[in-house]
Specification:
It contains 6 helices and 9 strands; from the N terminus they run E-H-E-H-E-H-E-E-H-E-E-E-H-E-H. The protein has helices spanning 16-28, 47-55, 75-84, 105-115, 178-190, 219-233; strands at 3-9, 35-41, 62-67, 90-93, 98-100, 121-129, 135-139, 160-163, 194-205. The protein has one domain (3-209): Spore Coat Polysaccharide Biosynthesis Protein SpsA, Chain A.
Length: 240
């Protein structure tokens, strides 16, 4: 089974290469070897491209690197672009500033899909960190019927793996609700996800350049996206 790892990248206030290199290093340490790395880069400079060029020869995995100059800053568009270039049987989504915690993380994901051949999406447990060495706030994902309202009991998309057969993509009109709305799409199309809670497979880095930090106190954005979701699905979500 071929695994594509889809990564969306950007400058991250000059930390892009630093953050991505940690991510890539954990991929290179994987015990499972049938992997391709697919990178969609929203950077306005060539720092990440230069980094990829430098490691390409020494990397044991194929790297597909794509400069994405469209809708720069739209994370939904950027991760969709990475997914669209993937050629694997399953697609592991992981944001640039996150990383795999276990050397057997991809092997564990492959095992789950092998044991569940009809599965179209899987979510796994993960941990948060601020320094790559100490971890806290464990997330044990579960689906809930109110996830479209923003009650996110699954967590960030770096804990998500989808089958190549999944046609749904992140809604590019959304930023704050991009994850909840996508999980809702997947549920409507494919039912409940396979939930893997046996081990923590991903680490999520908390830092100042995160997209979340640009949204969390943006009431205008959140209200606008709430209205958009209400119109899209015929709902009456009210923000309090």
């Amino acid at each position: 089974m071929k695994v594509s790892i889809a990564i969306s990248t950007y400058e991250a206030n000059g930390r892009g290469v630093e953050l991505l290199s940690v991510n890539i290093n954990t991929i290179m340490q994987q015990t499972y070897k049938n992997i391709e790395i697919v990178i969609s880069d929203h950077s306005a400079n060539t720092d990440i491209k230069n980094y990829i060029d430098n490691i390409r020869r020494s990397c044991q995995f194929d790297i597909i690197y794509v400069v994405n100059s469209e809708k720069r800053g739209n994370i939904s568009h950027n991760i969709n672009n990475a997914i669209n270039y993937c050629t694997g049987d399953i697609i592991k989504i992981i944001f640039m500033d996150d990383f795999l915690l276990k050397q057997s993380a991809i092997a564990d994901i492959v095992f789950v899909f092998t044991q569940n051949p009809s599965a179209r999406w899987m979510v796994n447990s993960y941990l948060h960190t601020q320094n790559y060495s100490s971890f806290y706030n464990p997330i044990y994902p579960k689906y809930n019927d109110e996830i479209i309202t923003g009650i996110n009991t699954i967590g960030c998309p770096s804990g998500l793996t989808i089958s190549k057969d999944v046609a749904a993509r992140f809604d590019e009109n959304l930023k704050w609700f991009m994850d909840c709305e996508y999980y809702y799409q997947l549920f409507k199309l494919y039912g409940h996800p396979i939930i893997y809670q046996n081990n923590f497979l991903v680490g999520t880095l908390i830092h100042n350049s995160q997209v979340t930090n640009s949204c969390v106190n943006n009431d205008a954005l959140i209200n606008s996206e709430t209205n958009y979701i209400n119109a899209k699905y015929g709902l009456t979500i009210v923000r309090t």
